[in-house]
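@channel sequence for tomorrow's demo:
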Amino acid sequence: GKQAPFETRVEMCNLLIKNVPKVTVSEVERICFEKAAAGLNEEQKSKVRVGTADILAMLTTNEPNVEFTWALGADTFLDLASGKWRRTDEVFELVGHRMVVFKRLFEGTDLGKGKINDGKNYEQDHDKLLRESAEKWSKLDEDGNPTIRIVSIPSLTDASSSTVRKTSDEIKLRELLTDDVLSFVKEKKMYSFSDSNI
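structure tokens (generated this afternoon):
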């Protein structure tokens, strides 16, 4: 499914974290776009694309004394590490190769049960690829530890934005979204609830 507009994603994030202390939603993506699009006409603005490297470059320029660490999911990390992103090398450099990669939970899913990937143990293959990619891109910090850490959190589910965008199964969505976010998605007729999917 198609990604929602920036303002809508910010609104959903605000709904998601409204009861989480000390957490705020950043609009750095909007600020970066506005800087890139300054002085352009509407047609030119429509062609401006702001990517992760642009955002990280702005953050590191604005906060030169901060050592940023990027937290991301395993699938996103694997896409980045395999060069599927524009400016892959620059993304790693901008965060000093400091990343925390959250492993996806496979237990109880079709992937974990070996029903996908011709019955091979997908989880083992995925973990091996994740380790190899982290080793390839990691540097050593001042204490001699790898700068890319893979973290496994038992409470982390197999949720993915793709799953959320594709399903209208409210039972599944209630496992993946807060009630406020699910109500918002339905009210705005987003993703699988859009009029084009009815």
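heads up for whoever presents: The first helix runs from residue 6 to 17.
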